[in-house]
Amino acid sequence: MTQHIMQICLSRGWGGLEMYPARIMPELQRQGAVNHALALSGSRVAESVRRAGADVFTVKSPLGALLAVRRLLAYIDSHAIEVLHCHKSSDLRIGALLAQLRPRLRLYFTEHMGVTRPKKGLYHRFAYAQVTRVFAISQATYRRNLKALPLPPERILCLGLGIDTAPFQAPPLTRSDLGLPPEGCLIALPGRLTPGKGHEVWLDALAQLAPQPSWHGVIIGGLKAEEGSDEAYVAQLHKRVAELGLEGRVSFTGFRSDLPQLLRALDIVCIPSRNEAFGLTVIEAMAAGAAVIGADSGAIPEVIHEDTGRLADPDSCAAWATALAALIEDAAERRRLGANARQWVEANLSLETHVAHLLDAYRLA
């Protein structure tokens, strides 16, 4: 039976959370669902879900969604929408209100960020009482959700993310395409340029590496606020690169829409973030066949194992320097880890499997 689903993401940011609805929509449609979205007008979320083929109901602000509740209900009724799926905790305001006014609706919430403090006050008890299931994206966040949310365990489901692995098999970009040195081991840190992602530890580790064998560092991520980054932090990183004498050894790529092909061109991908709720960038790099070093914290150890990558203390630049030096000097080990990682992601974290599990959960009464 066809399911009519509305993804709700009232955010003007641009990160993994905001990208998620558009990422899953083509596979939802392929598996028989009809896609709708509630998003902010002019946001990248609205643009991305339109490109993914969804009908989009837009509002100017989260408050505007509450003020438009009558029109929203009419849209939901006219399109026979059965499922609402929220992606920010603040989206639960409109999601819970819609579910209370239309009891036939099933309301779901993916807790993308990893809740860090209890949410058991009066408002949260009301909002979560309307939620059919909360999806935790890792075992690490599942354990936190059990403690923090006003829900019984049976209404919290661990549902890891998945990716479409096909784009990560495309031919890699060339170094000349990227304006990078023709020789040497390429070591990258992809992700939003915001505090907490571990850029400082990573740069300090690079500064400890011997210049030979040759290597080059690459920071991948938007440099502007509208691309999800903290512009003041970006300026700090440029300053730190200069202070460490790494200006000729570290490049900033800016935002890249061709990330799969870019990841395919890299030798080592580093994810030193201290508290990843899942580690989507980790599995993207693994799918691309890169040798990955991840922080030994948060959810990253759930996806990096001894035969698929390396782990390092996110607070120790010495540990990162040691791990990097070992892989820089051993190209055969890099290839082995990358091949194993690609196979593991294809077997365990495909988008097709993720969406099938998601649709099964949507059918729960």
Automatic annotation (TrEMBL):
Instruction: Check the record and name the SUPFAM superfamilies matching this protein.
Output: UDP-Glycosyltransferase/glycogen phosphorylase
Show where the Glycosyltransferase subfamily 4-like N-terminal domain sits.
14-166
A Pfam family (short name) is Glycos_transf_1
* Annotated keywords: Glycosyltransferase, Transferase
List, for all copies, the residue spans of the domain called Glycosyl transferase family.
Answer: 177-344
Keyword DNA-binding on this protein? no
Keyword DNA-binding carried by entry: no
By sequence similarity, the record places it as follows: Belongs to the glycosyltransferase group 1 family. Glycosyltransferase 4 subfamily.
Q: Would you tell me the protein name for this molecule?
A: Glycosyltransferase family 4 protein
